[in-house]
Amino acid sequence: MQRLLASLLVVVPAFAFAHGDAAWIQHDPRYVTNIATAAGYSHCCGPADCEMAPEDAIQRSPAGWVIPSTGQVIPYSRMAEGREAFYSIDGRPWWCRRWMVDPVDGMSKQRTVCIFVPGEAS
Fold first, then answer.
1. How far is the C-alpha of 57 from the C-alpha of 34, rounded, in Å?
2. Given the DSSP bridges, would you call strands 40-43 and 72-74 parallel, antiparallel or unpaired?
């Protein structure tokens, strides 16, 4: 029994901290995407989806936030809707990305599903 308990004490913290610096994203139920699932909209990240983004990875444009590496544009309205775009809690840019199948060419590509930008909440 003591060995089992000792094993659990080693394993549980590994899972608790698996998300690292981005744990604040994974644990907040407000952060959802526009990706619909049978249960509703999905959370923007999993255990390894989110990380701090390079300073120039998310850029402002008249149409919304642009992700030059993927060509994605996330309209500013997504922040007002509480989907895909949020203010960063630490004043730094963050993004959550997943490998997804592109419906046009059927290829698997890394797509940004949520961004966290410096602003009001930082």
1. 20
2. unpaired
Which residue type is seen at 94?
W
Could you state, in order of their start, the residue ranges of all structural domains in the chain?
A: 2-117
CA-atom Rg of the chain in angstroms:
17
Q: Above pLDDT 90, what percent of the chain?
A: 27
Query: Distances in Å between the alpha carbon of 100 and those of 65, 78, 89, 94, 106?
Result: 20, 20, 27, 19, 9
Parallel, antiparallel or unpaired: strands 85-87 and 108-117: parallel
Tell me the per-residue pLDDT of 68-77, one tens digit each, with 9 for 90 and over: 999 999 999 9
Q: Kindly report, residue by residue over 89-105, the tens digit of the pLDDT.
A: 889 999 988 888 888 88
Query: Which residues on adjacent β-strands are paired with residue 97?
Result: 112
Percent of the chain's residues with pLDDT above 70? 67
CA dist 96 and 111 (Å) reads 8
Q: How far apart are the first and last CA of the chain?
A: 46
8 Å CB contact between 87 and 119:
yes
